[in-house]
Specification:
67% helix; 0% strand; 4 helices; mainly alpha; 140 residues
Amino acid sequence: MTKSETSEKVARLIDANLNRLKEGIRVIEDINRYIYDDASLTSQLKTLRHRLQTIYSLERLHFRDIENDVQKKSIESELTRSSITDLVIANFSRAQESARVLEESFKLIDPALSEIAKEVRYGLYGVEKAFFLKHSAKEV
């Protein structure tokens, strides 16, 4: 693979994980907003999601390739959730994993952006702890 091809593939990797990260945060944010009416956690999640705007780039859209994504079909475990807690766990995991991929990928092109991804990942760890300490007894 040429350096240019590698660069394009890394851009695609970043684009996919940035989308996944923002989507995961949004799901958790909306659960806190509309189900738990939790202004504090909703605000913290919104802040983390907006922090990601600093690493967004329209240039990466050129490398988005949804048609050829080899794993766009959902697997069985992704199709079933039995509770709000399951939704929250799945989306915290999705967001944290994506933040880690971004943190590592940005090390190849811009360490400052890697630090932003790391900051968001650790922010999610803190919000996750706060959420479950606060809401674990209030299963919907």
